[in-house]
Every structure is written in structure tokens, then in C-alpha cells.
Write a structure and sequence with these properties.
The protein has 16 helices and 13 strands. By secondary structure, it is an alpha/beta fold. The two termini are 42 Å apart.
């Protein structure tokens, strides 16, 4: 029996303007984004979005500026009201909630980490981290213990008495993550959470998120405009363009099987050796003679280094010590050849 998604978005539309319901029918009749704006003065923010987000996975929604990614994540907790569609969270349509149920889901079921930290400047770090349980009226003895635990886990033990202005940007974002974890919500919404950070700090934060995810298995919706970040974090990748889903799926599959010229152009400059994993190109075992062993999660770059440039052999592929396939180094070389970009390069 297939498990129901934690979050299921169905036929979601968002039209910005004074008469969205009237414009909705025109869009359903085939009116395009440009004509809707030029003729009717309305903006088509999202168009027929259908995405399932599984429990315990990181779903990354990415696209260029204006693609609709931040608009989409704000529909999950109804910070933005849709024009049409459904947002099903744990089996319930949050678009049907009254104000009381909406407050409940925001306080208990979802936490949010913002791009620009959104810390309260007049509260110290401990109070900022404890914000959700304070608002809920939880027992201070319980939530203080939890807050201190998560501050320690994000590397900020000893900073609980400091104020936001006394912290670096990376430290402030760690406070934001600790706040989301202290809320104990099963769903974390992260809107460009690392994009305001310096590259090295950003990498550290990505590694921290993946480390915590191994332990907690939260359902995370992560917004990004950076393809390298998306490929590193995503279990499920959703790529938007002009409010439409262009392609979605497992990131490795998208890299090897782009379905649209926009995707082909988008991934053209990716370092495929560093991003692609052995599991994506391995084949069933057909021989007993191997040049060596390699883990299925190893990058192709790792295998190239291991092989010393010899492409004549095959490697036994392991998962947790068990043989799950073989890697022909000739297939590795083929996988490194970039997909031909389309003639009409997308504007970025």
C-alpha cells in the first residue's frame, strides 16, 4: 500500500490582481501569463501546481527570480491565499481551515526558517529559540531544556544570553534553525534560508542541515535559486519557471534525463563528476572480475580518482556492505558527457 504524502499540492493557482476569480476562468480557457498581464493587468504567479512531498524527505523547490518558488512555499502555511486548488497536509486541506485551526497548524505542525533570519532584536538567543513554545503557553521548564539542547546541536552552546546584534550572520541563521527545531513541528519550511550567507558558511549550514536530517527525518520544504545547493540537499527536486513546474523528480534522474530545453540549459554547466552518484548509473552484476569496490553513494569524481584514469574495468557497487550492482567505467565516461544545450539559450 502506497504511503500518503505528508504534503500534497493539487491544481494550485495564484493570480495577483483585483479580480483574480474572474481572471481564473480566462486562464483555464488558455489565456497566457504575458497576455494576462498586458491586457488585464493581473499577474499569474502559480499555474496548475501539482507536487507531492513525502514524510521525512527534503523537497527543494528551485527556479530563477520570479519563477514562483517563494509564492508556492507561502501557500503551504497559508501566508498567501490561493486563487484555486488544494494544499493537503497530513490528510487535511489547510485551505479549508478557519482562523483557529490555521493558528494551530502554524504553531504546532509547521516551523519556518527565513532568508533574513527574522530574529526578535529585543529578545536574547534563548528567548528567540523558545518563541514557538512560549506562544503556545508550554511549560518553561520543558521548552528551556529543549532550546538549550538544540542550541548545543547547532554549535551555539553558551550563547543563550546573547542578543542577535552580537552574532554573525551564520550564527543568527543557526539560531533560526534551533528555533524551528525547538518548535518540534514535523514540517520545516525554509525560504532561501542560506542564500544571505557567505559561501563557506553556506556550505557549513547545508552540511549541518543534512546531519540533523539524518537524525530527525523532518519533512522539509526548501526554497533555493542555486542548483548546486538543490542537488546537494534534495530528495525530491521541483524546478519552476514562470509559475509552472517544468520538471520534478529525484535529482540524479533529472540530471540524466532532462525533459525540457529549459532544464537542459539549466544544468549545462554543472560539474557532473562531482554531482552524479554511482547508484544513478550502475547496472546489474554481470561479471565476477572487478577492479575494486565502491559505495553506491560515491561521486563519479571519487571513482575517477580511484581508477587512476583507467576506464577499462568494472567496480563492484556496495550498499551497507552488500553488493547491489556493478559500475562499468565506460558508462561513467558516457555519463560525464553534457547533454547538448538547446539553440535558444534561456535568459538567466
Amino acid at each position: 500500500m502506497t504511503k500518503e504524502p505528508m504534503i500534497s499540492i493539487r491544481n494550485l493557482y495564484k493570480i495577483f490582481g483585483s479580480q483574480p476569480d474572474e481572471m481564473m476562468q480566462k486562464v483555464r480557457d488558455g489565456l497566457g501569463k504575458e497576455e494576462l498581464l498586458d491586457v488585464h493587468g493581473h499577474v499569474l504567479g502559480l499555474q496548475d501546481i501539482n507536487v507531492d512531498m513525502q514524510e521525512g524527505e527534503i523537497t527543494v523547490i528551485m527556479g530563477l527570480s520570479g519563477s514562483g518558488k517563494s509564492t508556492l512555499i507561502r501557500h503551504v502555511n497559508r501566508l498567501i491565499e490561493p486563487t484555486a486548488g488544494e494544499v493537503i497536509v497530513q490528510g487535511e486541506n489547510v485551505l479549508e481551515y478557519d482562523s483557529e485551526n490555521l493558528r494551530r497548524v502554524r504553531r504546532r505542525d509547521m516551523s519556518m526558517v527565513f532568508q533574513h533570519f527574522a530574529l526578535l532584536p529585543h529578545r536574547n538567543v534563548l528567548d528567540n529559540v523558545s518563541l514557538a513554545p512560549i506562544v503556545r503557553g508550554d511549560d518553561p521548564a520543558t521548552y528551556t531544556k529543549d532550546a538549550l539542547h538544540w542550541l548545543d546541536r547547532v554549535g551555539l552552546s553558551g550563547y543563550e544570553g546573547h542578543y542577535p546584534h552580537q552574532l554573525s550572520g551564520g550564527m543568527q541563521q543557526r539560531v533560526g534553525i534551533a528555533r524551528a527545531l525547538t518548535s518540534n513541528a514535523p514540517v520545516m519550511l525554509m525560504d532561501e534560508a542560506f542564500s544571505a550567507l557567505d559561501p563557506l558558511i553556506r556550505t557549513d549550514m547545508q552540511d549541518l542541515l543534512l546531519e540533523l536530517q539524518l537524525e530527525l527525518a523532518k519533512t522539509i520544504v526548501f526554497i533555493s535559486h542555486d542548483l548546486d545547493e538543490a542537488l546537494k540537499l534534495a530528495d525530491h527536486l521541483v524546478i519552476l519557471k514562470d509559475g509552472l513546474v517544468v520538471q520534478q523528480g529525484e535529482p540524479q534522474h533529472i540530471l540524466l534525463n532532462p525533459e525540457d530545453d529549459y532544464i537542459i540549459d539549466f544544468i549545462a554547466d554543472i560539474n557532473r563528476a562531482r554531482v552524479l552518484r554511482v547508484r544513478s548509473i550502475m547496472e546489474p552484476v554481470s561479471t565476477s572480475e572487478f577492479a575494486g569496490e565502491v559505495d553506491q553513494e560515491a561521486s563519479l569524481e571519487d571513482v575517477i580518482a580511484m581508477s587512476g584514469g583507467d576506464t577499462s574495468g568494472k567496480y563492484k557497487v556496495l550498499k551497507e556492505g552488500e553488493v547491489v550492482g556493478e559500475l562499468d567505467l565506460k558508462a561513467l565516461v558516457r555519463a560525464l558527457v553534457r547533454t547538448q544545450a538547446s539553440d535558444s539559450k534561456s535568459v538567466v
